[in-house]
Amino acid sequence: MSTDELDTVSLTVPFQAPSASFVRTELKQWLLDKGFRGETVDDARVVVSELVGNSVRHAHPLPVNQLAVAWFVDGDDLVISVTDGGSGTSPHPISAAETAVSGRGLSIVEALVAQWWVEDDRDATTVHVRIPLGPAR
With helix as H, strand as E and coil as C, how does the chain read? Predict the structure, then answer.
């Protein structure tokens, strides 16, 4: 564990679409407070929105109709984790048709992060991402 992991933010939010906006706002403010600006903040906001949105659209909630979101800085990366109750299939990007109105979420995430991976447990699925931060300003 790096010393930065001691500054982990952990949220439990309602399993509903508006939670993406709440989490996005909380992450933005945390990054700004840490001195990060510009594309770093924008990319992180897009990624966390996609992850929370995908959970709500495609998975089941954790007990008490919630999902869990956490983030911390690990070296030069922001690590974000979103945990839901799973869906029976592991999250994966798909090839959406040009005319499709959805289906690009994990492809967008893949384009913005250095690494992403999934941990499937019997009662939960967690998607983790690592986003290069660049220097704080």
Answer: CCHHHHHCEEEEEECCCHHHHHHHHHHHHHHHHCCCCCHHHHHHHHHHHHHHHHHHHHCCCECCCEEEEEEEEECCEEEEEEEECCCCCCCCCCCCCCCCCCCCHHHHHHHHCCEEEEEECCCCEEEEEEEECCCCC
pLDDT tens-digit series, residues 33-59? 999 988 989 999 999 999 999 999 999
CA distances from 137 to 30, 79, 96, 117 (A): 14, 19, 37, 29
Residue 51 in tokens: 């992850």
pTM: 0.84
Inter-residue contact 70 to 129 (CB < 8 Å): no
Q: CATH code for 3-132?
A: 3.30.565.10
Q: Where are the domains of the chain?
A: 3-132
